[in-house]
Amino acid sequence: MADIHQVNDLISIERQGDIALVCIDNPPVNATGQQVREGLQQAIEQLNAEGTAKVIAIYAAGRTFVAGADIREFGKPPKAPALPDVFNVIEDSAIPVISVMHGTALGGGFELGLSTHARIGIEGLRVGLPEINLGLLPGAGGTQRVPRLAGIPMALDMALSGRMVSAKAALEKGLIDRLESGDPRDVALKAAQDVLDGTLATRRTCDLDTPRDDKALEDTAAMLKKKQAHLFSPHKIVEAVRASYLPRAEGLKIERQAFVDSMDTPQRAGMIHAFFGERAVSGIPEAKGDTRPLDKIGVIGGGTMGSGIATSCLLAGIPVTLVEVAQDGLDRGVATITKNIDGAVSRGKLAADKRDAVLGMLTPSLEMEALSDVDLVIEAVFEQMDVKKDIFTKLDSICKDGAILASNTSYLDVNEIAACTGRPQDVLGLHFFSPAHVMRLLEIVQGEKTAADVLATGFALAKKLKKVGVLAQVCDGFIGNRILAHYSKTASYLVLDGASPQQVDDALEGFGFAMGPHKVGDLAGLDIGWMTRKRKAATRDPNERYAGDVADRICEEGWFGRKTGKGYYLYDGGAPVPNPEVAKIIDAVRAEKGITPRDFTDQEIVDRYMTAMIVEAARVVEDGTAKRPVDVDMVFLFGYGFPRFRGGPLHYADTIGAKELVSRIETYAKEDPHYWQVPPILRKMAEDGTKFADLN
Ligand code: T1G
């Protein structure tokens, strides 16, 4: 009968002769919450005090070894014992302590392993230091122990990239000592026995010296200064890794201070919001419950979107029937998909030996009848309602009962599309973002009659495709494009009133956007916005200041951006440079409108742009198009390149405060009372002190 003693609810000690097995059992991912920390420390201290065990092996129950500190504790008053102190107790144990890691040993979990005197990985293990993704840095010895085991370049790479390292690579780099297969407890028992037999060597990591590599530190510091000046924790990582030259206590002190400093930044708050937000959006009741099969998917349209969607499904292991109306279009679609799949192989997203099998799941066809046996059809054709209605009418008669009919429309009325079928309950919107096999956002648009299991299947598809599914209600542009349509006018107004397109882009890139709006327009194609403005011309609000003069004239010249080599910028293969013709167009429009250009500071540009985004985002929450503020935030993080460390437009709004936002809008409204109006929800927040976070 095994002698098992519960140190507390989450930590147990099992004695097997001279071996003590310490088991962590804290579902779902064995995060090192306060009870785990306390129980671990007690177990090691107790075993050392007893002095009977000759080796201690730490392992974890469940699907993974420790996946890190408990992120839910962040932002709350810290509770003893602190993780670094627990790990020092382990490292200082007079009895050798080994760890057996399986699944994903990340952050504090990997640091736990590093503090033990030998590390055993189980096949399939991945290790990592992902704290950078939370606006932090390894705060429990990772920056001190990885350099000692694997050198400074590896430590910098792991901590700055946050990437997961395979068990094989970890073994090669000396981060783990063995790679075994089997059940964690059995592997722990065997490894402990090997320590007793002398066939598994143990040593304290802190007894090792970090091999000097000042060049790696200097080069990295210089690169970060240039590329990530606006972030906080990356620079702290270099500082902490450099401290690994020092004795453990001094190095850990520097790391700890860097960690505490990072914990206090708004960047950490933004990135933690992003972490939980990504999970919250699919944690809604609409995403739960029965779902329909997704064993075979049909895609109509082999253009950029259709091919991207088909690629995404194929990479998720779902067979796809791709339908086009003409052979050349079908051939182009297949060629694009093939290129996308080869791209996934070259990016390491797909094993080369799986390429042919994945492409083998693609069935191209010119006949819509080929869709008669699919579980879900995703229509991705031209954005014209009559074209879509024609297709859905045909699908209604071709597809089997229970098949789901989805449109990838980016703004058209899903209810109107559904109404032309006899099965509106089987219809929904699945709005992918280009390139669909790369961008993680999927807006799941609920029609008035969409059945509950159809909606839940939309979320199940998002999960299968490793996308972030966000529920949206029907309106022009759903969540993201509706908000974009509003705030993009502010960029145009700024240019009309005195800023240059490049200044607007530079200011917003300084805020953290990967690309400014004019560069984005050039990339996507200025003709898309041009078509939308023409589509809306007849219904445009006469009281609204027209924002499209400059862009219209650029398009009238045939300058659509990258694809024509000319747009707001010139593209000749090097870095894009401002198109001098655009400045002339801007001057001409200003002259015709009697506008005297004025200067804007970069901060004014950011404030106006972000306030406009927040105004429409607030309205989208207010009218229920989005379920909560966090849903809007995730749309912008995963679909619009919003800087992750800012958390999303409404998380960012809370950092400004409703009072300040209302004051700004009222100031801007003096110039343009029609465009700048305070949404009631924001007025209420300014009065009662509530925040968008209170609505999540
Ligand atoms: N703390 C608290 N909860 C966590 C968690 C964590 N570290 N990781 C996951 N969860 C929850 C998650 O919210 C979800 O909950 C459930 O577990 C399943 O997660 C001192 C300071 C491990 C790869 O950043 O990357 O250590 O929604 O849906 O897709 O230096 O979770 O079910 O209620 O993501 O299989 C560093 C974060 C922390 C790892 C599993 N560690 N987690 O992915 O499941 S900082 C991380 C992940 C740190 C130290 C520093 C993934 C996963 P619910 P899931 P999954």
UniProtKB/TrEMBL annotation:
GO terms for molecular function: (3S)-3-hydroxyacyl-CoA dehydrogenase (NAD+) activity; enoyl-CoA hydratase activity; isomerase activity; NAD+ binding. Keywords: Fatty acid metabolism, Isomerase, Lipid degradation, Lipid metabolism, Lyase, Multifunctional enzyme, NAD, Oxidoreductase, Peroxisome. It is found in: Peroxisome. Residues 477-571, 605-689 form the 3-hydroxyacyl-CoA dehydrogenase C-terminal domain. Residues 296-472 form the 3-hydroxyacyl-CoA dehydrogenase NAD binding domain. Belongs to the enoyl-CoA hydratase/isomerase family. This is 3-hydroxyacyl-CoA dehydrogenase. It comes from Lutimaribacter saemankumensis.
